[in-house]
Amino acid sequence: MGCHRHCYSCEGPGNDECQTCVVPKYLHNGTCVSECPAGSYNTRQEAVGQELGFCLPCEHVCSTCTGDSPRDCLTCSPGHLRLLHLCVTHCPTGYYKDGSHCEKCDQSCEQCTGPGPDSCRACPPPLLELQGTKLCVESCPHRFYQLHDRCEQCHTSCQTCMDASPQSCLTCDWGSTLKDKVCYPRCEEGRYFSDEEICQSCDSSCRHCTGPRTDQCLTCHRDSALHAMENRCARCCQAGGNDTDCCVCDSRSALCVEAPQRKSGDDPRIDVNMSSRPLNHTSAALPVSLLLALGLALTVFALVKAHSRKSLCWGQSYERLSGSASVNMPHGVPEPDSGDEVDVVYTSRGGSVYRRYSFIHEQDTDADQDVDESTCLNLS
């Protein structure tokens, strides 16, 4: 009795008793099939002038494959991830898990949780990790200073600084005066010093700000945190909540660890424009430097004159307290879960501690102490 019509050679007449098959059929478990099943691949051999086909098993990590090597996987078996042509149990450094695949991190990241430079978990040298974000940058932007391989947050009163204390400011925002490395604000909490040189209200989402927009916040109210890239405040996400306009908050810095979703009506402009590439301010550097130099000269002249009359503007807004302070004193923004609403306290280089009082003053009846407040506020 002859073989089954699909068999080239056989052990019996059944279709599952084949020993060899002729291409385009392939032998699998005694049967000649048109396609090899999952977990196997087809191969061909020449014998007695015929091209015989066989199904051979894939490497155990492969679900489908083109050969017997671990590098020949097309899809991976359960519990494994596809990395190029390999199947691995976890993604190596420089890659992140995306479904059943391992995808390469952005070139600015050493480790990451997803695509793009804002998903970095570790930054390769010489890039620096920006506190409160997942970004890697080449240099620290305003409001941050370099500490080893990280950009740490300055005290919120400083625009640029040497460390995180309020006594280490190098420059201040418009509307604050720098004296002995401390920035003294001209407006009370919730208000900013405008271009018209008057105190105007911040956006309601900001506790302190540099302008009226939602993306000009410096600090935030309780249960909110500041996104360092967008300079706007967002509510801290609550466990089990469904709020989409919230951020994952870092209780140590009152910063958003992950960016909040932008509301449709928000102004898309951002004050600090950062990326993983170098920041370019060369074109405006010369005129800005000249204006700053002129402003500094006028400020020094006005301060010397005011000091000689004992009529410094902030002299009416601070009182000297007992005790002293050091660079290691607590500083920064209250933690999102903190209810601390006390007045802002600053410390001079000599260690004297001052508390800022309300900016609404009683009328001074002494003619010798009468100071033209509009002149003081216009110092710059």
TrEMBL record:
SUPFAM superfamilies listed in its UniProt record: Growth factor receptor domain (SSF57184)
Alphabetic keyword roster? Membrane, Transmembrane, Transmembrane helix
At the top level of its lineage, which domain of life is listed? Eukaryota
TM annotation in the entry? 284-304
Which InterPro entries does this one have?
Answer: Furin_repeat, Growth_fac_rcpt_cys_sf
What's the protein name?
Uncharacterized protein
Which species is this record about?
A: Pleuronectes platessa
